[in-house]
Amino acid sequence: MNRNQVLVLGGTGTTGRRINARLAARGITHRSASRTSEPRFDWNDSATWDAVIEGVRSVYLLPLDGEVLTRPFVKRAKELGVERVVLHSGRGVDVPGYMDLSAPAAQTHIDGEDAVRSSGLEWTILRPGWFAQNFSEGFFAEAVKAGEMRFPAGDGAATFVDVEDIADVAVAALTEDGHAGKTYELSGPRALSLNEVARILGKARGKRVVYTAITVAAFVAESVAQGWAEEDAKGFAEVFHPLRTGLDAHYSSGVEEALGRKPRTFEAFAESAARIL
Ligand SMILES: NC(=O)c1ccc[n+]([C@@H]2O[C@H](COP(=O)([O-])OP(=O)(O)OC[C@H]3O[C@@H](n4cnc5c(N)ncnc54)[C@H](OP(=O)(O)O)[C@@H]3O)[C@@H](O)[C@H]2O)c1
């Protein structure tokens, strides 16, 4: 048994893929786990948990949004000998007005943070803000490719964080000493409005992108016309609230604290993503 093994939950996802790649490049033994891995790991089926936890020293814990399963998972991990957990949470979980704190998605992170802090394990919490990669491989990518982003975000701005930085911080916390007991809030270096984002993405891909601010009601109506369920469209519109109101426009120093360097710029992200935009 290799007790230095790292377990990466959500290993096929946006952050997990990049963490796996870094661990592989460093020759660190690791196990990627999700519903499509072997052995299979399903948050909703606790009978699948032990097989991925056994033999592991450190866990990158990407929780299941909308569920409060981090606490029982951490308890089981500790029983099976895990020593260190790096929890992926989200910026804004302790900011009044950022989100509906009673909503299931908020509770995932609020209860999850409390669970790791009180676990008795070595813990590090990552609180990233909006991912830059939302524009290249996440829920804004189709709009960017189509050349127009029609969002209910007004003229709000955010300090979008590059997921490459999140992965660098996660790997440092998983594999190095000095990160235990730290909560790293992660952002990019400066706030950008969606007009600036559109200009930078357009320049990088060599094809114009525009941002059109629309009302929440118009966004919901357009999403429903595209086949969304009305409730889902309203939920998605709600996600823009922190962007619209400037709650995500501040700089957070987590990348510098964890890595001793500045976060990557949105321009650098856009250049590296240009071929898929
Ligand atoms: N996007 C943003 O701007 C942003 C900002 C701050 C925080 N966040 C947080 O980031 C998190 C998402 O991280 P991400 O982007 O790396 O993930 P992601 O790309 O959405 O991927 C989700 C991962 O979870 C796995 N998964 C899904 N359901 C599962 C289940 N029932 N059991 C086991 N594994 C399951 C998926 O793999 P399989 O399909 O193979 O199972 C996949 O590997 C969320 O908690 C979100 O709140 C996002």
Question: What is the strand arrangement across the widest sheet?
Answer: 2-1-3-4-5-8
Helix amount, in percent? Answer: 25-40%
**Rg, please?**
19 Å
Report the strand count: 10
What's the order of the H and E elements?
EHEHEHEHEHEEHEEHEHHHHH
Task: State the helix count.
Answer: 12
* Unreliable sequence segments: none
At the fourth level of CATH, the homologous superfamily of the largest domain is: NAD(P)-binding Rossmann-like Domain
CATH class of the largest domain: Alpha Beta
Distance between the termini: 43 Å
- Backbone structural class: alpha/beta
Largest sheet: 6 strands, parallel
Ligands in the model, by name, code or SMILES, are: NADP nicotinamide-adenine-dinucleotide phosphate
Fold-level CATH name of the largest domain: Rossmann fold
Domain NAD(P)-binding: 10-176
Q: Which key phrases capture this entry?
A:
binds NADP nicotinamide-adenine-dinucleotide phosphate, Rossmann fold, alpha/beta, two-stranded parallel sheet, 277 residues, globular, 16% strand, UDP-galactose 4-epimerase, domain 1, single chain, 6-stranded parallel sheet
Describe this entry's structure for a reader.
- There is one protein chain.
- The protein has twelve helices and ten strands.
- α1 (14-25) packs across α6 and α7 runs parallel beside α12 (266-273).
- It has helices at residues 14-25, 49-53, 70-79, 104-117, 141-146, 163-175, 194-205, 216-225, 230-239, 241-244, 254-259, 266-273, and strands spanning 5-9, 30-33, 56-61, 84-88, 122-128, 148-151, 157-158, 182-186, 192-193, 210-213.
- The protein folds into two domains: 5-128, 3-Layer(aba) Sandwich (Rossmann fold); 129-162 and 187-249 and 261-272, UDP-galactose 4-epimerase, domain 1.
- The N and C termini lie far apart (43 Å).
- The chain is of the alpha/beta class and 277 residues long.
- Residues 10-16, 34-36, 41-44, 62-65, 88, 90, 128, 130-131, 134, 138 line the site of NADP nicotinamide-adenine-dinucleotide phosphate (NAP).
